[in-house]
From TrEMBL:
This is AbrB/MazE/SpoVT family DNA-binding domain-containing protein. Keywords: DNA-binding. InterPro entries: SpoVT-AbrB_dom, SpoVT-AbrB_sf. Residues 6-51 form the SpoVT-AbrB domain. One of its GO terms (molecular function) is DNA binding. It comes from the Bacteria.
């Protein structure tokens, strides 16, 4: 497949067909990882960030009222003897 490299301001750009992005699993992505490997420009799906979606999940749990402590509050027997 041949595509046109276009001038965009001071840069160059290409328009990738939707079917090509779908084959690479990038059809619903808004970002991609790009690198040059052995003279080829390579696009990859970005790695999923650690803890991605945790904040939304915690909010959903709190909204459902399911965020109570499992063991309740408890202290260590010797806590009063500690000085900070």
């Amino acid at each position: 497949m041949h595509i046109v490299i276009r001038t965009i301001g001071n840069s160059k750009g290409v328009v990738l067909p939707k079917a090509l992005l779908a084959q690479a699993g990038l059809d619903s992505a808004s970002t991609a990882m790009v690198s040059v490997e052995q003279g080829a420009i390579v696009l990859r799906r970005p790695a999923k960030l650690a803890r991605a979606g945790w904040a939304e999940a915690a909010q959903a749990i709190a909204a459902a009222g399911d965020d109570a402590l499992l063991m309740g509050e408890f202290g260590n027997a010797a806590d009063q003897d500690l000085s900070w």
